[in-house]
Specification:
With about 200 residues, this protein is mostly helical. Helices cover about 50% and strands about 5% of the residues.
Length: about 200
Amino acid sequence: MKSRLAIAALCAAVWIAGLLGEACADIYVRTDKAGHKEFTNRPSGPGWIFYAREDGFMPVIKFAERGKAKPIDQIIGEIAREFDIDPALVKAIIAVESNHKPDAVSRKGAKGLMQLMPATAKKLKVESPLDPRENIIGGVKYIKGLMAAYGDLSLALAAYNAGPGAVKKYAGIPPYRETINYVKRVLHHYHEYKKGGKVLVADG
């Protein structure tokens, strides 16, 4: 109940700021060590996860009707549209993380299309990380929060791969060969998808 009141108050503040001409952003949430939730429309530092659009709408995704499965590209497009993120970026992360394999599991235990670690999945409330829909929603919320917190796509991708702690420790992209290559590969795929890679977005 307190969370709902807090988010309602923040939505009102964001709306008023919009009327006054101030910059507005989506709303993000993080949980402190004591388990208390805090909300902001101007995240700074690690730990923030996308919570709702600036108008207070929390995306609810409808993926299929009457049990008919949808192609991954279409699911990516629908989720990206609801969360206001470039579908080409989501697809690029998936290409590098799992090579589009929904059942992918890494040696470290990361699962699914966007390779969510168990602790991250739990934080994002992803109950079935091998379910493509849940996994993509969790990954999108995570990368969107990182992008908002760092204000730089390369740093956000580095944090997605190596963890926010590593980015903080080195005050930038960590000098890990894996992370450096990861950022380069995702950006390469991202630009290729934006140029001509087909990413389907379903009609509303």
